Amino acid sequence: MKRLKVFLCFETDSEIPVGELAEKDHRIYFQYDPEFLNTALWLSPYKLPLGSDLYEHKDKDFGSIFGLFDDSLPDGWGLMLMDRFLKGRGFGMEQLSVLDRLSFLGSNTMGALTYKPVMYANIDDTSTFDLYDLYVQSQKIIVGKTQTVLTQLMKVGGSPGGARPKVLVGVDGDSLISGEGVLPKGYEHWIVKFTGINDFIDAGPVEYAYSLMAKDCGIDVPETRLFGTEHGEHFFGVKRFDRDGNKLLHSHTFGNLIHSNFRVPSCDYEMLFRVINDLTKNYQDLIKGFRQMIFNIFTNNRDDHVKNFSFIMNKDGEWSLSPAYDITFAAGPGGEHSMTVDGEGRFPSLINIFNLGEKSGIKKKDLTCIIDQVVQVTGNWKTYAETAGVSEETMETLKKKMLENIPGL
């Protein structure tokens, strides 16, 4: 039987034992530490409520492990790095279990959960941190020109979620360092995204323009910027919302909170708003969620799946909707939104939006103000695109798509 201790670390030097994961005969089990039951910290209230029972993960249609712990794992890009890195060091992929992956990550996870024992603790690297070199390496891996994963890339690129290649960096002005773990004084935790194989060439400027536009729509977006290289690339960067200095915040994606598989679009925004009302009980969080949904509709961000919304829990066990992330142009599965809007996925109408608002408890005047603001701001797309350095061709392509998606135009 494989066993793995789970810890909650709001501070990097302070571990709170949460419980133990175990695997036997391809079955995953979890049990809370008796002392943790006294904390009243409901880390995953719907699928792993506090209790002394031994929980068995039976929801195989969702995934291989409870959603709480799946949020510690990367998605496509990070998993590919992990597989190639471990394979290059003699590990057999057919014997690698989900607990092994968590053990490999150890404390180098997103959010505030960490795992012991660490399977591969000595990922040492003495090379100088160079953003362009990491980008070149990531592109070689994507197109299959190399099976070798540099240690530095594994350290900074192996834990973030999402399909696009990305790395964790420490930022202090224009100074960049490797961003996993504890950072020196003055540095802040950021994520920098590289270009994916199916992205616009200027994907970085596009996402930066979207972030500027979203902020002016009143959406809660972390600090963003472009990181340039001497070779002319401009990569999109965003400050991490699961870090406050070197303090860690517990985050839980909406999809993993309710065990909805983001790879199988089957959820409606109505469920997101029901969870917001139940979990945060905060009308302003509900407003935040609606504002982001409307922005996604009007700007053709159809990669609005259940893992692209998250919740943050503080040390007192209080939940809030996280800042917005992964806001950019996306065609979506089959050209539709990943989450439907009042049952409509391709062209949600104002009727759909207002129906959903009424069912979710949004005041009609608030919804009208949000729509007016988003229409006004997104109508200035060209200004944001020019500020971000988006090419004329991409600018016009996206402008046309946005006009197609604004209900009533």
On the 0-100 scale, what is the average pLDDT? 92
Tell the overall outline: globular
Q: CA-to-CA gap between the ends?
A: 60 Å
**Content of β-strand:** 15-25%
Continuous helix count: 13
CATH topology type of the domain at 244-405? Phosphatidylinositol 3-kinase Catalytic Subunit, Chain A, Domain 5
The CATH top-level class label of the domain at 244-405: Mainly Alpha
> Low-confidence parts, pLDDT < 50 over ≥5 residues?
none
- Provide the CATH architecture of the domain at 244-405: Orthogonal Bundle
What is the tally of beta strands?
Answer: 15
Helix vs. strand class: alpha+beta
**C-alpha Rg (nearest Å):** 21 Å
The topology string of helices and strands comes to EEEEHHHEHHEEEHEEEEEHHHEEHHHH
What share of the residues lie within helices? 25-40%
- The strands making up the biggest β-sheet line up spatially as 4-3-2-1-5
The major pleated sheet works out as: 5 strands, antiparallel
The gist of it:
With 409 residues, this protein is of the alpha+beta class.
Describe this structure in words.
33% of the residues lie in helices and 19% in strands. With 409 residues, the protein is an alpha+beta fold. Among the domains are: 2-116, no CATH class; 244-405, Phosphatidylinositol 3-kinase Catalytic Subunit, Chain A, Domain 5 (Orthogonal Bundle), CATH 1.10.1070. The strands form 4 sheets. A 5-stranded antiparallel sheet has the order 4-3-2-1-5. Strands 7-6-8-10-9 form a 5-stranded antiparallel sheet. Helix 8 runs antiparallel to helix 9 (283-298), helix 9 (283-298) runs parallel beside helix 11 (364-378) and helix 12 packs antiparallel against helix 13. It is globular. It starts with a strand and ends with a helix.
